[in-house]
Structure formats: C-alpha cells, structure tokens
Description:
- Among the domains are: about 105-165, Cysteine Rich Protein (Ribbon); about 180-240, Cysteine Rich Protein.
- It is built from five helices and 18 strands.
- The termini are far apart.
- The strands form eight sheets. A three-stranded antiparallel beta sheet has the order 14-13-18, with no helix packed on it. A three-stranded antiparallel beta sheet has the order 16-15-17. A two-stranded antiparallel ribbon has the order 1-2.
- The protein has helices spanning about 35-45, 95-100, 155-165, 215-220, 225-230; strands at about 25, 30, 50, 55, 60-65, 65-70, 90, 95, 120, 125-130, 145-150, 150-155, 180, 185, 205-210, 210-215, 235, 235-240.
- By secondary structure, it is α+β, with helices and mostly antiparallel strands.
Amino acid sequence: MNNSWHPECFCCDICQQVLADIGFVKNAGRHLCRPCHNREKARGLGKYICQKCHAIIDEQPLIFKNDPYHPDHFNCANCGKELSADARELKGELYCLPCHDKMGVPICGACRRPIEGRVVNAMGKQWHVEHFVCAKCEKPFLGHRHYERKGLAYCETHYNQLFGDVCFHCNRVIEGDVVSALNKAWCVNCFSCSTCNTKLTLKDKFVEIDLKPVCKHCYEKMPEEFKRRLSPITSHHIVPK
C-alpha cells in the first residue's frame, strides 16, 4: 500500500484482523482480509457469502441455521447424498428433500421450512404459529379467529374494513341488517340465546356470558351467586346496513 507498517499494525480495515501472515486484497483503496473483501464484493452484486469457505455463492444458497452456504458443502444426514438448495433442516441436521418428506414432518405454508413445534392447521395448509398472519396487518392470529377470502386470511378488523361485516356466529359476510352487540356483528337470524337458542329481537334484553348473549329467561334461572358476578342486563340494537 506504498507505506511501511509494524506487522501488528497492518490490519484489515473492516474486521481489524492482522494481515501480515494471511495476505490482503486491495479494495477501493482499503486493505482487506479475503473474507471481508468477498463480503463487500457480494454485497455489491446482491449475492451471499458462504459461511464455510467465505467465497461468493453464485447459485441458490443453502440456508442452515439462518446462515448461507454452498449446498455441496453438506450431505444428507440420512442417505449421504450431496445436498442442493432445497435441502431441509430438522433438529440440527440437514436432509435431502426425498428423505425429509419420508419423515412426515409438516412444512410451513409461509416460509417452506419444517415445523418442529406447535402447528397451525388452516386453509388446507400447515403453518408456524408466528407465520400464520393477517394478509393486511401481518399480525399473527395466535389462536384468534381468522376470515378467509380468495386464499388469504384476515383478522376480523381488516376483513370488515375491506369486505363488510362478518357474522360472529356463522362466519359469513352479512347481507342484510346487522345486529351490533358485544362489540361484534351478527346476522339477524344468528343472534340468539347461547343457552336455549331462542332468537333475540329488538325488544329483548340479554346478559353477556363468555362473550355470548344469554336471554333474560335463562339468566333468571341461573343461581343467584353466579348472577351477582355478572354485569347488568344490557340492551342490543339492530343497525340497518
């Protein structure tokens, strides 16, 4: 670099590794170790650097434990076959796709990676819990109700905003009048007592128990001790669409 250096002072401009014994590469006026030079070059090309050999990966990388590698650096833990980029990781081991599929491990419909823990079964696919999200706000449902439309899942708020009110009971878009109760929307014919199934009308009153309506008649038959723990009887209303 047209200068004289103490050996311990001549270091990589990025990682500060001493270069005297390992050599260096000149990169845009900087002296870099070869791994840092490759990373800088790969960044400019929009490519990955193999975490094993530190060379640029020209083909589709194999992602193992969130790091990129050349696929041919690994072999299937079951059959020993050299792996390709579609290899699958399971419990810290890598398998070729045929061997992995024979093991019956579910694949996430979002990230296409194996699901080793809790599985969400929805929309004809299986998902990691954190990957089954609303198509609008991208928040995980985490066990809450979702609404499907044209192959996509939505939370109740964004489904209602995009496509109209959805009945809390039958899970369908409400075509006619909407019953607004318990911070939910209901079809007129679906809004009924959750205990006796009697249809509730504009003149009826009900109480809320576990987010469901209970008519006054069923409420009065409940034990007094239980009724004292409930909120007062609340009126519902029907809102024209």
